[in-house]
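hiii so my PI (J.) wants the whole complex modelled not just the main chain, which honestly fair. so below is everything: four entries, each one labled with what it is. i double checked the lines twice but i was tired so who knows lol
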Amino acid sequence: MKNATPNIRNAEATAERILRAAQTVFHEKGYDGATTREIADRAGINLTLINRYYGSKLGLFEKAVLPHLNLQPLLQGTPAEVARRLAELYVDTGPKDGFDAFVVLVRSIASREAGPLLIARLQEAALTPLERILEGPDKGARATLIATQLAGLVLRFRIMAEIPLSEEERRELKRRLEASLHAILLR
Amino acid sequence: MKNATPNIRNAEATAERILRAAQTVFHEKGYDGATTREIADRAGINLTLINRYYGSKLGLFEKAVLPHLNLQPLLQGTPAEVARRLAELYVDTGPKDGFDAFVVLVRSIASREAGPLLIARLQEAALTPLERILEGPDKGARATLIATQLAGLVLRFRIMAEIPLSEEERRELKRRLEASLHAILLR
DNA sequence: GCCAAAAGTCAACGAGTGATTACTTAGAGC
DNA sequence: GCTCTAAGTAATCACTCGTTGACTTTTGGC
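here's the output for the full assembly
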């Protein structure tokens, strides 16, 4: 047999394990704070395999994070739907399945190596898609307003999640945010 | 004389030079990215004086950055004045006199050492002052909306400043932002 | 069963990091 | 002018980082 019985030695599976572990660690520590040794430990693989499969720490970062830095999937549907979806999503600490590319963005933006990649990527993966779904005047300004609002919410609820907010306040925030986003999306 | 003729050897002046250099380097690189050696070089002083005067890199950070992480001074006056001031200030790359504590915040938030300090400080230096100037209902939600909007703008215009925005778009953004902030401040 | 090639392991290098210890120099007070 | 203390310096420690090159083990085709 060729492709059956996944063996102990399986390059594809190993590369995948590395990728998953990298996502988790980059999420928790950011690019600079993450070490290749911790990624290797979490993946349960040897340290050197990271360089073998991804060339370098930065190469791994590009494969593990950049593709997921994409607002597009959240922008489908009517303005009302989009506004509701964004408000729901960003005012919670999230399901926290261990990886959120936008959290990685904020935690890695200061990195001398990863920062420039993230900035370039954000242009095409967030600002441009946002502009594209807008109709009417001032697309650039409106896209910026939405993107900055969302970025701030990531910082507040995904990274500074320990600062408390009552359930009542959270509900009211979601309501106001949804209304605000909807208004901007419409005109 | 005692306090006159500032000598070559002047502890107070040296400590001050260290503080200024630290602000610049922390601003540019964030806490983790900044090295004590670069701070010492920029200050034109010996490396060991940092530890002598501030105990540690983290001690220096506390003195150099945390006190300036304060929204209070920007919140004086009528809601209209505050809205205009904030809109003016945050939609520009700024005078860039080399130090903005909120830029340092974003660039250091992922740091294992400095991060917790920043989060704690932000609560009392931004969210609480904001809530305090608000009147009417939903103070917590409204303060959060303003703070997150401003945080996103810091990220967009102070850190990702190289992403272009036309003068026209910038003007329109300022107008819309001011209106939005004003509305939130009022009710 | 043999054996090349793929997959995985091991030890270490070189560059930086914050911090410390022991030393040297300058200045203020008498 | 001497001296004692504060200010500044030099050398280095202990540690972590990403990365590399040589080595060992497993696998699949013949």
